[in-house]
Amino acid sequence: MLTLYSYPSLFGVADNNGYGLKVYAFLKLAGVPFIHEHLFDASQAPRAQLPFATDDGETIGDSEAIIAHVKRKYGVTLDDGLTPAQRDTALFVLRLLDDLYWVMSYSRWKDEAFWPLFAAALKREHPRLTDDDLLAAKEFNAKRYHYQGIGRYDPPGAYARGLKDLGVLANLMPAEGFVFGPTPTSLDAAIYGFIANIFFYNIPTPLKAFVDAHENLVRHCRAIHAAVSL
């Protein structure tokens, strides 16, 4: 059976990282049976990144590669009705979510206004984590942020970037249904992966304040959350 390896849950979502939650939601929406294993340490994963999956002896790294593999092998039809223009739009949004990821992560591990609350939440839900574990992860992420670029921003500048990303999502999201119509596609799973990790995140970051204020984003997040929590 397919096994998904991803980061642990937090604040009631199945993975506290947008990429792992994206794959989790896609598998649930597609009705593909799988085992879900949680890891804290990504060092042994392909590219030293989570999520990854194993399936009949094959190891697949990267969220998009996992989704492509599942579509091929299991005949998933979630995206079969999309037009070429819609597929292009989906790719644009996926790349926007890549940008949003860095600001979300910054708000947890970099911004000293929220880091203590995040660390406390992780320790509360996952008591085996130690202060040394969390500090090591914080230092590792600080290096990633510096080389990626977001770590060179002050908090207002970083959040301004993320809020622009969220503004595009708010403009894209309809008041009813899903992005491309009455049924969800893999893009809805991807958006949920990130928005759920902002909306259900019980720490008042500027990103959460934006999502909370946009009913279309909240409605969509709750709809996918209900569908994947069955």
Structure description:
It is a single chain. The protein is of the alpha+beta class. The protein is 58% helix and 7% strand. The protein has helices at residues 18-30, 63-74, 84-109, 115-125, 131-148, 155-172, 186-199, 206-212, 215-228, and strands spanning 3-6, 35-38, 52-55, 58-61. Helix 3 (84-109) packs parallel to helix 7 (186-199) and helix 6 runs parallel beside helix 8 (206-212).
What is the gyration radius calculated from CA atoms? Answer: 17 Å
Helix fraction bin: 55-70%
Order of adjacent strands in the largest pleated sheet: 2-1-3-4
The major sheet is characterized as: 4 strands, mixed
Would you identify the regions where 5 or more consecutive residues have pLDDT less than 50?
Answer: none
- Spell out the helices and strands N to C: EHEEEHHHHHHHH
Shape: globular
Number of strands: 4
Indicate the mean pLDDT: 96
Q: Count of DSSP helices? A: 9
Which structural class best describes the helix and strand composition?
A: alpha+beta
Report the β-strand fraction as a percent range.
5-15%
Report how far apart the termini are. Answer: 20 Å
Question: What's this model, at a glance?
Answer:
Helix content is 58%, strand content 7%.
